[in-house]
Design brief:
single chain, mainly alpha, 0% strand, 84 residues, 3 helices, 2 domains
Length: 84
């Protein structure tokens, strides 16, 4: 079975995600929003986002758990690869 590497071990990935989030929040919730022609979501819109995305996340997590429990991609690393 291949080793799993947690995302937080990749400092470049964590830095890219943090930078992207900081830029998004900086643009949306400051005066720069008007310059880019965007606005933040209202609470009603956030509720709709959660309602629409929650089933997708739940199904994805169930499929990952199913794959880990009953087969899936175990032992399919390429030659010389220690993590997949």
């Amino acid at each position: 079975m291949c080793a799993q590497i947690p995302p937080w071990d990749n400092k470049w990935l964590v830095g890219a995600i943090a930078t992207s989030m900081a830029l998004h929040f900086g643009i949306l919730y400051t005066g720069a929003a008007a310059m880019f022609g965007v606005t933040g979501l209202s609470s009603a819109e956030w509720v709709m986002v959660v309602k629409l995305s929650a089933p997708v996340i739940i199904v994805d997590e169930v499929m990952k758990a199913w794959s880990r429990r009953w087969g899936g991609a175990q032992g399919t690393c390429a030659a010389g690869q220690t993590a997949c």
